[in-house]
What we know:
Blueprint: E1 13-16, E2 19-22, H1 33-42, H2 44-54, H3 60-69, E3 72-75, E4 80-83, E5 95-100, H4 126-142, E6 148-151, H5 155-165, E7 175-177, H6 205-208, E8 220-221, E9 228-229, H7 234-261, E10 268-273, H8 275-284, E11 289-290, E12 297-298, E13 311-314
Parallel strand pairs: 5-10, 6-7, 6-10
Antiparallel strand pairs: 1-2, 3-4, 5-13, 8-9, 11-12
Amino acid sequence: RVGMRASTGSAGLRVRGGGAEMLEGSAGVEAPLEEVYAAIADTQPEQQAAYSSWIGGVDTEAEAAAAAAAGCILDVGSGTLTYAADFAPPELCFDLLYCRHGKTTGNTEPRVYQGFVDEPENALNEVGLAQAEEAAERLEALGVAPDLVVLSPLSRASETGMAWVRRHPEAAGLVETWDETAEMRFGAWDNVKVKDLPADSICHLFYLAQNALVRSAAPYTRPADGAAFESESFVQLLTRMGAVLDKLEARMAPLAAERAAAGKPPPLVLMYGHSMAGAALGVLTGNGKRVDGEGYLGFDGKYILPNATPVYLHRCR
């Protein structure tokens, strides 16, 4: 959680009418990001009030049922998720190694909602390209031999994965792009800087309060062709990524049975994806991270997977 205090000092920042703006006399100098973020954080009561009004138009019973299907309890008032008392990680027949993409401009300050977008600014930057190679080297050191390599259709993730694939031309036939593994859809918030969104918007509860229900009312419109993409909540993302696990289980089951009969290790799936998609898989596989000092789950901010760092989300016993 971002913990900052608002300031109206020399930078002249204040919040008015739900947005951050400069006071007269600031000579057009933009306030330091820390102050902008502080003002947004201090507006959380207004964000919560807006959420309380907005939630009345949401089918919360359906969202709660979706959360329950993922093994979680949804607190509608706060939008937070906790593991159900009887939650048990799925007994998957394969090992799952997940790698979030390398850094992009959108991962660099000022922060951006970077979801189901694939514009030039969402591509790997120089740091991200180097991180992709470093991730490939880590996998080399581990000596992994995946039976399936799944890539998100978004270039920042697929390019991170291709850094390993290019080192293993023999594995080219194992590589598949699955559209359903793409990043969370933030709708109209996508590719918008956090500092440029109204300070009292419910969007800020996503990272300030780990609210799994908030989502944009308007879609994201892709500049290239005008195609519109509706938003989804984190709870809805859990449902989507749960279907990915089911698809993988069905796909790997015959090979897993064959391996088991021969006394060999289970299949390995290597997946390249994103922060929120990875967080959803983490929750589903029992690797969800609890917010410090709280019982509910965190999925954004410091709770996300690091860039270009392969992590086992499941290993067969």
